[in-house]
Structures are given as C-alpha cells and as structure tokens.
Amino acid sequence: MLKIVRYLPCARFMVYKKWYLLCLCLAISPTLNARTFYISPGGNDANRGSLEKPLRTISSGARRARPGDTVFVLEGTYRERITPARGGEKGKPVTYLAEPGKRVIVKGSEIWKPGWRKEKKGIFSARPHPSLFTDHSPEYLDHYNPLKVLLASTPYGRNGLPEYQRKKTGDRNFQSVNKQISYTCGQVFVEGKPFKQVPLEPELTPQTWWYQPEDQRLHIHFGQLNPEALCIEITTRRRLFAPVNRGLGHIIVDGFIFEHCGNQYPTDFWKVDKYAQKGAIGLEAGHHWVIRNNVIRYANTFAIDCGRVDRHTPTRSTSHHNRIEKNYIIDNGSAGILSYGSSNLIIQDNVILRNNSLHFSGPKRWEHAGIKCHNMVNGLIVRNYIADNPHSPGVWLDNQFPDSEVHQNIIHHNGTHGIFLEMSDYEFDRLFVTQNIIFSNGKNAVYIHDASGATFANNLLACDLHLESVGRAIQIKQVSQRTRSQNHSFYNNLILGSAPTVEVNYPAFRSGPQRFDYNLYGVPADQENFIISAYSDQPSPWTAKAFNELIRRDIGAREETASLATGNKLVALSPKEWGIFWKKHQIYNDQNSRFLPEINLLYDRKLFLLTLELSIDAPKIKADATQGQIETIFELMKEDSQSFPAGPLQLPLLGKQSFRVWNGLPPCSKNELPSRGGEYQK
Questions:
Q1: Among 292, 522, 661, 673, which residue's Cβ finds the most Cβ atoms within 10 Å?
Q2: What angle do CA 282, 288, 292 make, to 5 degrees?
Q3: What is the CATH class of 115-149+184-234?
Q4: Entry pTM
C-alpha cells in the first residue's frame, strides 16, 4: 500500500491516510463505542478531536479519554506534561498511541531565545521568564520550576546542600554538611545535546552552565559559539507523562519519544515527601499499565517509576501487573527504571544504556542502576540489554525479591556490578537468576550483601579478564546487621576471571550455607580460586590471625602448608581445600564441577558476538536431577539454547566458538536516537 500511496495526488493521499489511520485505530480499539481522539501539532483544543479536526495537545485528549478510548498522536513535537485523568478497565484500556513509524516527541523543555548579557569570554547569561514554566502540578511540594528546586543529593561525588554524609560515629544517621554548593533539577540543551551543570561560577568551562539563585539568571559557557545562532532548550517541566491521582489502571503508552525532564533525585523517598520517587514517566502506583516501544532519554534523574512513590502510597497490592517492554531507556541522569513495592512486574526486551550519567554514588545516593527494584514480588526481568551504565550496577534488587526471576539478560560494562542483591532473608530458591550473560562490569559479575535465597543457574559470570584485581565473578559478604547473607546456590554456570573468582563469607553468625556444583571454572585446578572472608557479621567477629587459624583447622592443614591469607581477613583456598572446607560444614560443594585453564572471552559490540577461546575441549556436563526446582530451568535452557546460548554448559564447548547473544532492539550511540527497523530514520 505504501508504494501506491506514495505517487497519489495530495487529496487522494489524504483519503488513503485517513482510511489507514482509521483502520489502525479500529484494530487497536475493538471495544464497542470506543472513541479515538486525534492529536496534531496543527490542531486546536477547541476541536472535537476527529482526524479532520484534531486536537492540539495530548493533554486535551487525556482529559477526554475514557475506558476503551485511544488518544492517537500524529507526528510532531509536543512540549507538555501529560496527566491522564482516568484509567481504563479490564479489556478496555485507555491507549496513548504515537503514529507508527513517525517521530512523536514529548519534551519537558522549551526553546529559549532570551536577550543575552555577556558576562565573560564565551559566557552569557539571561533570566528565564516565569511564563515558560507551565507544569503547575499540585503534587510538587517545593516548586514547579526545576531551576528553583535543589537536587536532593548532589551528583559527581560532590558534597553540598542538601547532600548527606555519615556521622563519624559510624551509625546509620546522617547530617547535612558543606552548604557551599548545590545543583538544581534543571537542564540545558544546545543543538539537542546536554550541557553539564556546575555548582559554582568559577567552574564554568565550555559546554557547562550555572544557575545563580539570587538573581535567577542562567549562565551558559558557549565557548566559541554564538548563542544567537543556536537552538537552546531549557527544562521547564518536572515530569512528562504521569497522573496526579494514584492507582489508575489499564493504561497503554506506545511509541513515543520522551525527553528533557527536570525531575528530582529520590533521596529517602520512602520518608521525605518532596523527594518522592517520580520518573519522567510515572505509573503512580498504578496497575495493568503497558509502557511499550518508547524512547525515554535525558531525564534529569531517572526515566520510569513503576511502584510505590512515597510513604503515603498505598500498599504494594495497588501496583501490580505492569509491563515495561521494548523501550530504549538511555542517557538518563541516575537510573533507567526504579520500582518500589510492585508485584507481577514484567520488564522485558528493553535496551537500557548509559544511565546514571550524573555519576551518583555514595551515601544518600542509592537510587541508581540500569534497573533497581525494591520489594519486587513475583517479578520478571527478562531479555534486556543492560550496558554502560556508569558508577552503577546493571540490575539492583533491594529489600526483598520473593519468587522473582532475572532471565536471559545481557549485562556488561556497567560501572560497578552486573547484578547486585541486597536486603533479603530467605531460605533457598526464592529468586532465580538464569541464562544471563554477565561480563566485564567494573567490579563483580554478581555482588551480594545482606541478602539470602538466590539461585544462579546456567549463567555466564565473568569479571573483566583484561584487568587484574578489579573484582570477582561472585562476591558475597555481610556489611551490616540488617539481615543475613546465606542460602545462595550456583549451579551449572560458566565462571571466568583471573583467580580467585569466588568470594563467600564464613558460614557462621549472619552467614550460613552456600551451594556450588556443576560449574565450569576458567582457572586451573591447582590455583587458589576461592576466598573465604571473615565478613560474616558487622563488625567482623574475628581478628585476622584468629580467622586464619579457624580456616586452617577447618581444612585440617598444618600451618606451614595451608594457604596464606590474602589480607584484610580473607583466606584463599585451592579447589581441593574448598571441597574439604565445605565438607567440614556438611556441604558437598563443587564435587561435580570442572576447572579448565586459559578460557578467554571476547566481545564484538557491533555484531553482538561473544567468543570463547579454550585451550582444550570442555566436557559437557548437566545438572543432577535431585536438585529439585533447578531441573525445570535446565529443560527450558535446552529449548532456548539456539537463540540465547546463555547457559554455555549445555553446549559442547570446543576450542573456539562464537555466539550471537543479542537479537533484540539495536543499541544506539550517545546523543543519537535509535533507528528501529526504519521507524526512526535520521
């Protein structure tokens, strides 16, 4: 049809286009008496919203839409905050649909053309007019103007108002310190690219900006550029798509490009109301939402919230059965997706890149990651491409995660850990992490503290083979007295890295049993690949000398022949000593595992090819049927191994093999919109 329409005269083309759009809307809105409201940049909000007389703003369609209706948005740029007035019903969702194959952009910014005052060479200033700031939502407890709202915690490791630091007493209370610097929630974009905010005027350099609160002037360092000849945008809205009323359900958001949002960093969001966890897109504790086929980028802090928002949000039962799929979540200031207290949440087939661009890290800066979920119940994180999120883990599950799964994700080159588990207290097998490919992250492939009950099966777990002493493939330790760090299982994984690749805490105090078997380790069998740490409680229960003696007794070694401590209350063990140690504690670990020297891992980003180089052929091993729940996971692995060979132990590993590990949405470069099958052509 497209080839025919291309050569029709203009009038007849419009007839065919109307017919096509009507058929499309009927296909997605089959409900009897459902209406479609059309939105166009050339429309008028006084119109009735037909294709012939469309509305001008998406917000106008949102005010009209009722269960079963569709708000169909035609190509163009819409500078507005969309606040759905109501949700849909089962079988009758309210659908917000961008015109397929077109760029439908929702921006939280305005083009700014002020009268400039030259301050210094390359530096110009102006005062944004109050009329630019139109997002007067009653939910804001401080101010609707992002430039007048201080970030709850400062980025880039800077200490300033209103950031917090630990008191010297070492407890978990915090106090505000060093009130000399501050950052705002605002943003500045020049020719579509973000300039960096600095907190002090002397720090202005080319492509940076500073806001002076006393006279409300924005100072921008343009370098050699002439501001009069540039397209300059400043964020004027703090959210892009989010209801004010919480708990709305059955809403679909499909096909938009969301960008330029001046939202807040959610420091202590569970107890400080003005720092609520509110993303550029906010589900506001809603249920049965579908966020699909969108691009969400350049949020000041994070892209999507999909659970509880603050201490006043109802229990997590109100936020359930939401789905976030096939989105690009890229280049946001702190995180991609944040969720607190969701049940039956599905996050699948997304590309999540370069989030935490503001480099939040340290005390009171904990809400950052590609994906971070608190209290995720029966959730599923599956087939996502999560990479290059600086100073952050790829996936961070915090404060309970019962009956959830992390499955078939590609997680690489994130700033800290591939997967980080924190704050849970379970028996075995309450979280399943299966068939993931996790490699070359800044610290550990898997890092666990103060958490229990996860099962890792059929994963590739590798620290960076080309950097020594960066981290471990697996590290488990206790850092507080909140919960316990025990009851984890590692079965049938390929575990790579320079020895030692595994570190666990001693099974006493707040630690306990850990299970390892049927793994393939990429180190020789005579190397000290395993570490037992004294961090089974906080503070550690042993001195370094006492702990060293304890391990020697457990493995039955004479002092002159036992492994030497690596320092800092860590004792390294060979595979043989590792087996003896666990038998002493009535656990038979890695009895069926194998050790192969010289396994190298290479990755081609352009082709998504993962290459494994082995010095000899590896034996093909499989899990024992007595491992209960794990058996069903292995059967699933066999079915899917052709498209996602994430459990390489199910395949015969030869001397050198390459696997294409990603067939989903193609990742895009920094400051570029993706091209998805011709949908977003440049």
A1: 522
A2: 65
A3: mainly beta
A4: 0.90
